[in-house]
Amino acid sequence: MSMVEKDDRGSAEVSRSNVQYPLEFCEANRVLLDEETEEYVRVLMCDPEDRELLDLLGFYHRKRVVPVKISAVEFATILGRLESSEEEKNGEGGGGERIFLDRISNDAPVVNLVNSLILDALHRGSSDIHIECFTEYAAVRFRLDGVLFEMQRLSRERFAAVSTRLKVMAGLNIMERRLPQDGRITAEIEGHRIDMRVSFVPIVRGESIVIRLFTTREAGLALEDLGFEVDVQETVQRLLRYPHGLILSTGPTGSGKSTTLYAMLRRLHQPGVKIITVEDPIENVLDGINQIQVHEAIGLSFDSLLRRVLRQDPDIIMVGEVRDESTAELVVRAALTGHLVLSTLHTNDAISAIDRLRNMGVETYMIATVLRGVLAQRLVRRLCPHCVYWREPAEEERALWERIGEKVERLPMPGGCELCRHTGYQGRLPIVEYVVMDDDLAELVGRGERVAIIRRELERRDFQPLFKRALGLVSRGFTTMEEIQREVELPV
Fold first, then answer.
1. What pLDDT shows up at residue 177?
2. Structural domain count, the chain
3. Which of 193, 214, 235 is the last residue of a domain?
4. How many CB atoms lie within 10 A of CB 409?
5. What angle do CA 184, 190, 195 make, to 5 degrees?
6. Does 125 lie in the same domain as 242?
7. Residues 153, 300: one domain?
8. Residue 419 β-bridge partners
9. Domain co-membership, 171 together with 264
10. For residue range 283-340, what is the model confidence (pLDDT) as tens digits?
11. pTM of the predicted protein model
């Protein structure tokens, strides 16, 4: 980019160039092509400090871009003259926009770069690709086992081209850089179908792009593949044998709730059963299951779709998330009318799901009637078995274990070797607590007892909360204290 020049012409003169960018692109970005030579291209801009737009134009022209500042009034005048000229041509040159977009998005090096990023992320087992534009470069980071690692850096021009390519692949508006956009990409790579959810958010230096990767392997996971402890797996299987009622999975974003729900659906799927899901977004496509995408912009909300789903004669309904009172009411009504309903909530633990439903206006007697069980889940990194080593616990760590009636003699630590990319960890494993409703618990819930009272009843039954299960994984050498402290609230 060169220094900003000042336009010394009147607004009556349109442009020195015989060609022009597509007018829709000009209007969206307030830019006009003024002159192009072998050495440089001059553009008229209302905002000549728009680095991202200059980077994109630099990539498109493959030469130096000289911005010339013009006022909004001058831009509107010139654009109006161009639009009048375009109308007089009766549609001639209408393919300019397609050619313009194709040159950027289908540029072979850009296509290869985007494909290689996705392939590299898949081979490394990454769940997300983050591409973020900063002042002088763009950082590409992969989320591996829940932690972000920077993998490479791109020039700002290359970032602009990658952003354009991804928008075209997702069917988004390539010209929109001021508003957030979300889309979905499905690709066939090395014989595997890959579903991707892509998010674009404008930031001060350009855009932040996040690509969430969903593979058919994840969608195909069985309950036995999730890494649940034996009692958790048996409990889930028992809950899924109920012909009707409500089963909830709780936890923060990224805790594996959706993967668990998909594994449940796979277990429940059979030819004689109709399963319908209402999701936002659909993270994996499952054969033989009717999946519906929420689309608030056109009135397809969770509650409006649920009303219609109930007329579709389903046996089992999965609702991606209970977000509001109307959805909570419909989920409970569906469970009361002979359907098995699976859904998620955002709560810190399993028993808090009862309070969350109460706060959403669900009557306590209805909760007691329909709720079959609640799982609360977290994901922590699993220690690499090839390089794990042990250390003496600190005094405060010994005190923590004593407070829960246990003793600890040693604690595992991550080493680092070639097999785990020198991180000390390989994969992740779930920590799960569960509450299964029985007559006594249902009576407490139906009477409107506080969650603290219900929790005391669970503790009397040797209930294993998240922190106890987490500490158990540490003592057996599966993960570290540092990992569980990131995900689980430990007693003080």
1. 78
2. 3
3. 214
4. 10
5. 15
6. no
7. no
8. none
9. no
10. 888 889 999 999 887 888 888 999 999 999 999 999 999 999 999 999 999 999 999 9
11. 0.76
Label residue 380 left, alpha or beta by phi (over 0 means left) and psi (-120 to 50 means alpha): beta
- Range 189-213 average pLDDT: 87
273 and 419 together in one domain:
yes
Residue 99 lies in a domain: no
Q: Is residue 115 part of a domain?
A: yes
How many CA within 13 A on the CB side of residue 263? 19
Do 350 and 438 fall within a single domain?
yes
The residue segments making up the domain with residue 28 are 23-86
385: preceding bond cis by omega (within 30 degrees): no
Write down which residue in 157, 184, 214 finishes a domain: 214
